[in-house]
Amino acid sequence: MDLNSIYTELIMEHNQSGHNRRHLENPDHKERGHNPSCGDDLTLELEFDGDIIKDAAFTGHGCAISQASTSMMIDLIKGKSKREAYDLVNIFIGMIKKEITDEKELEKLEDAFILQNISNMPARVKCAVLAWHSLRESIKEDVETGE
Amino acid sequence: MKSLNIERIREDFPILNQQINNNHLAYLDSAATTQKPLNVIKAIEKYNISNNANIHRGAYTLSIKATEEYDKSRKKIKGFINSPYSESIIFTKNTTEAINLVAFSYGMENIKDGDEIVVLITEHHSNILPWQMVARKNKAKLKFVYLDENSIINMKDFKDKVTDKTKIVAVGHVSNALGTINPIKYMVDYAHQKGAVVLIDGAQAIPHMKVDIQELDPDFYVFSGHKMLGPMGIGVLYGRREILEKMSPFLSGGDMIEYVEEQSSTYAELPYKFEAGTQNVEAAVGLKAAVEYIEDIGLENIKNHEMKLTKYAIDKMKEIHYITIYGSQDIDKRGGVISFNIQDVHSHDVATILDSYGVAVRAGHHCAQPLMKYLGINSTCRASFYLYNTIEEVNQFIEGLKNVRKWLGYGS
Ligand SMILES: Cc1ncc(COP(=O)(O)O)c(C=O)c1O
């Protein structure tokens, strides 16, 4: 295991910057995600403008990987439609499960692409996907019934 | 007391002789499960090669041999903890099953509306959840005893909480999350004065210190084989004979019966009444070998060695200003468990980083979420030592700790 491939500068940046760690003033939806085996406990807050994710933020506590992954996800999905966000979640989870390996596809994840290495660390996979599952739960119904 | 010949001991634990991430493996998670010495591995192998059959079945020689092996293991445990009777030793799957057995067979029938159950805030979930279920079903009250300013159990609070209404006091002998050794003898005597029945969760005590049932005189004492050099899948419930005799079976079915009619049955005698279905005989055989190994080395010597490592590690950790150590500051009140956090770094990241240096420690809530909440923390890292650990491994651990914050981008 190469720690350099996990605790990268980008992850450290997201972990420490905290720019997405706050409460929204008027969230339309809150989704709590909890990983009972290690205690990560994050709440995702979302504000919608019609179909668009206008703003997003998170609170709670967790390890560097879960915090950074959440922050990267928020940067990625802000301003996107629910459908686009939903597709990105599926790409991310596909990447972590090693089901999606096509670089072109994975580049759509922007910063979060760097978390690909976590797919080699079974003990930390749950940390990386926690917030993404919360987002999926939050928008699943709208996206699936909208079709 | 004599110091251990660690080099000799380590030859008995081939699993420890391996590289993890290009470093020597320093296995510091024996509080979760211990490694098995060769005599345990070989005893299980020999049983399977020569003696395996289903016990208490038929008159053929092989089944008789297997039954004898199983009985010998029970006798070994009886001697090890100085139980007055072999029938008081019930084999279970683990500590968790043993506590559930007591909660369901004894608790559900004897704890009534308005009665009280007392546990410590430091309990493992397996000594909380079964009592929550009893309390909820029977409308009893579950009370927690908290810590004092020195992070040990507040005995005044204990005496306040244990009252004439208390029917069960269920306490851990040694805390798996903080490493604190509780004044268990005093607790047993006090609870008995109040007329309560006492269960002691000895999972973290039995591997490290002499437990004498006749001296301690608890009503129930439980532990797991896999934390004392034995196999997974075998645990022990010691129960006071008079109480066990009155209790109904926990699981029912094969092997625990006397006569079975269409609509009713009578049950086998102790201990078989509580051992329904085919048992894990090879694990019982392995557990016997584990006890032999421990007796051979000597519990006093084991404890002495562990505490040497623990004291050394705590002294070194105290020199690192960004480390917080939880639990008693008084080394005499501790076992070989150190729970700690590194400032600004989540315990899970600490464990991942230490793993890259070959050091295996546990991170998380240690199945003690109520304690974590009470302490106002989310999780801790935990290093725990056993007879096979060395000072070099403690140094490897300390060196790893010094590198943790750097990986997360902090200066020091
Ligand atoms: C104090 C204590 N009680 C109970 C248990 C549960 O043991 P088992 O999982 O073997 O049932 C443990 C193990 O982690 C423990 O440390």
How would you describe the overall organization of this protein?
The complex is a heterodimer of chains A (147) and B (412). With 147 residues, chain A is of the alpha+beta class. Chain A has one domain: Sufe protein. Chain: A (Alpha-Beta Complex). Chain A has 5 helices and 3 strands; from the N terminus they run H-E-E-E-H-H-H-H. Chain A has helices spanning 9-17, 64-77, 82-96, 103-107, 125-145; strands at 29-35, 40-49, 52-61. In chain A, a hairpin with a 2-residue loop joins strand 2 (40-49) and strand 3 (52-61). In chain A, helix 1 packs across helix 2, helix 2 runs parallel beside helix 5 and helix 3 packs antiparallel against helix 5 (125-145). Chain A is globular, with a radius of gyration of 14 Å. Chain A starts with 8 loop residues before the first helix and ends with a helix. The mean pLDDT of chain A is 92. The longest helix of chain B is centred in the N-terminal third of the chain and has 21 residues, at 61-81. In chain B, helix 2 packs antiparallel against helix 10, helix 3 (61-81) packs across helix 10 and helix 11 packs parallel to helix 14. The mean pLDDT of chain B is 96. In chain B, the strands form 5 sheets. A 7-stranded mixed beta sheet of chain B has the order 4-10-9-8-7-5-6, with helices on both faces. A 4-stranded antiparallel beta sheet of chain B has the order 13-14-17-16, covered by helices on one side. Chain B is α/β, with parallel strands linked by helices and 412 residues long. Chain B contains 14 helices and 17 strands. Chain B has helices at 6-11, 38-51, 61-81, 95-110, 129-138, 155-161, 184-193, 213-216, 241-246, 281-297, 299-318, 347-356, 369-375, 391-407; strands at residues 19-20, 23-24, 26-27, 89-92, 116-120, 141-145, 166-172, 197-201, 220-224, 235-239, 257-260, 265-267, 323-326, 337-342, 359-360, 362-364, 380-384. Chain B has 2 domains: 6-30 and 298-407, Alpha-Beta Complex (Aspartate Aminotransferase, domain 1); 41-295, Type I PLP-dependent aspartate aminotransferase-like (Major domain) (Aspartate Aminotransferase, domain 2), CATH 3.40.640.10. Classes of the chains: A alpha+beta (147), B alpha/beta (412). The A-B interface holds A 1, 3, 6-7, 9, 12, 15-16, 37-41, 61-65, 121, 123-124, 127 and B 21, 345-349, 352-353, 355-356, 363-365, 372, 378-379, 407-409. The complex binds pyridoxal-5'-phosphate. Pyridoxal-5'-phosphate is lined by residues 94-96, 124, 126-127, 172, 176, 201, 203-204, 224, 367 of chain B.
